Amino acid sequence: MAINNEKFNQLYSYIRQDLIKSIENQTYPPNSELPSTRELSNLYLVNEDLVLSVIESLITEGFLIKVNSSFFVLDIRYQETLTSKGITLNLNSMNNEEHIQFNELRKYIRRAGCLYSMVLNIQPEDDIYYIERLVKRNDTPLWYEENYCAVNLLPNLSHIDTTVYSLESILTYHNIPIGGQQQIVEVVPGTKRLKKILRLEPNKPVLRFNIYILDLYGNNQFHIKRYYHPNAISFNLEN
């Protein structure tokens, strides 16, 4: 049975909030295995694709981790280790009363130009989406990100609410396979506008993740520039 966009959004939001509540009240305790997508689809009376979209979003947000074909509740939220780069990064954990907000600051279509024609393997005259998002915890900035995607990959992205859906879940919903990710981490000075958005002092450096979401052939589908507020994370650089 087909689900229209409004109904899909309602079901997606309901299932997402219900799973988060079940994780936080430890109905699904840390390190436990989540019920299968088939079991969850039967529980919520929806198709498995919708359930998988929600799960992909919760993986991105740090609630879950995928091991082979199963999904497990993370013991410590927002923890990521990048030992291959000599960097250990911990996104500081939250208590159950704290609220995460995803805010879409800007979204528009522009030409790829020379740089993003090379990054996204398209022509300079092709159109790309540019999306700015700010993520807050109880109105305190956690990170700011810039997202770049070819319009021909997701023509209707301008009508999708990115305050609700992660980029990974959008790709999954549209049956666009993800082959993996590449991440490059660097400390950058940041622009005046970035400092204002993250409420940083002018001389405060910023940790930037360049994230490339790949297709099955290793080509870039999305490019994300994510800038973390220093108070949102702790990290160590090893020589």
From TrEMBL:
It comes from the Bacteria. One of its GO terms (molecular function) is DNA binding. Gene3D superfamilies: Chorismate lyase-like, Winged helix-like DNA-binding domain superfamily/Winged helix DNA-binding domain. InterPro entries: Bact_HTH_transcr_reg, Chorismate_lyase_/UTRA_dom_sf, Tscrpt_reg_HTH_GntR, UTRA, WH-like_DNA-bd_sf, WH_DNA-bd_sf. The keyword Transcription regulation applies. PROSITE patterns: HTH_GNTR. PANTHER family: MANNOSYL-D-GLYCERATE TRANSPORT/METABOLISM SYSTEM REPRESSOR MNGR-RELATED (PTHR44846), MANNOSYL-D-GLYCERATE TRANSPORT_METABOLISM SYSTEM REPRESSOR MNGR-RELATED (PTHR44846:SF1). This is HTH gntR-type domain-containing protein. It comes from Facklamia languida CCUG 37842.
